[in-house]
Amino acid sequence: MQRFDKLVLLASLPVLGGWVLHPVGTLTSVALLAFGVAHVARLSRWQGHRTLSDPLVPAPQMLLKVLATAPRKSVFILTNHAGTGPWSYRGAADGMMKLRRRVGAEAFDIHSLRYTATAELARVGLDDDLIMSITGHKTHRMVQLYAGAERQKARARAANIARERNKDGMSLPL
Predict the structure, then answer these.
(1) How many Å apart are CA 145 and CA 92, to the nearest integer?
(2) Could you tell me the pTM of the whole model?
(3) How far is residue 48's CA from residue 55's CA, in Å, rounded to a whole number?
(4) Residue 72 and residue 2: Cα distance in Å, rounded?
(5) What per-residue confidence (pLDDT) applies to 46?
(6) Is the CB of residue 149 less than 8 Å from the CB of residue 155?
(7) Phi and psi, residue 86, nearest 5°
């Protein structure tokens, strides 16, 4: 958190305390208005949280060979039009929409693809930390939410296999 943010938050506390003690008053109203403007200025600079600075992207050997021979102007794989900087969010969203239209998948947004990737990685047995390193999720809770249905299906398959093995009716050890 930057110094300006800390100052605005700390200075807001006495103003809010003054409002609690004396809610109707010109000085309290002016102070609340001033700190409201300061909070708007503080929040207008906020750029959101980064999920993962260097996400791990698994790549098959075929892709690694193609990338090794592809001409590049920078370290970025997905780049802007000039090929010198990273692909912007807007550029990525537009590119994905163009591709989704071409294959008839307009109903599937980027978030849905991330959700699907998380579920598929859980289905093949990756643990939460590995999934987070690939998808960029910041919390285990989100991975567990997205992977929950696939993990439940895996438990159900395991239960069915155990039941088939125990057709003679004997109880299974827990």
Answers:
(1) 25
(2) 0.45
(3) 17
(4) 37
(5) 65
(6) no
(7) -70, 155
Q: Which two tokens stand for residue 143?
A: 């991975």
pLDDT of residue 21: 78
**b/e map of 42-66 (b: 16 or more CB within 10 Å)?**
beeeeeeeeeeeeeeeeeeeeeeee
Provide the 8-state DSSP code for 77: S
Are 136 and 56 within 8 A, CB to CB? no
In this structure, the chain runs to a length of 174
**φ/ψ (deg, to 5) at 100:** -65, -40
Contact 95, 87 (CB under 8 A): yes
Which two structure tokens, joined as six digits, stand for 59? 């790549």
Q: For position 141, what pLDDT does the model report?
A: 93
Q: Which residue has the tokens 């010109």?
A: 26
Using CA atoms, how far apart are residues 93 and 109, in angstroms rounded to an integer? 9
Phi and psi at 79, nearest 5°, equal -120, 170
> How far, in whole angstroms, is CA 57 from its chain's centroid?
15
Give the separation between CA 93 and CA 123, rounded to whole angstroms. 27
> What type of residue is 111?
H
Q: Give the Cα separation of 154 and 150 in Å (integer).
A: 6
What are residue 79's DSSP bridge partners?
86
User: Half-sphere exposure (CA, 13 Å, Cβ side) for 153?
Assistant: 11
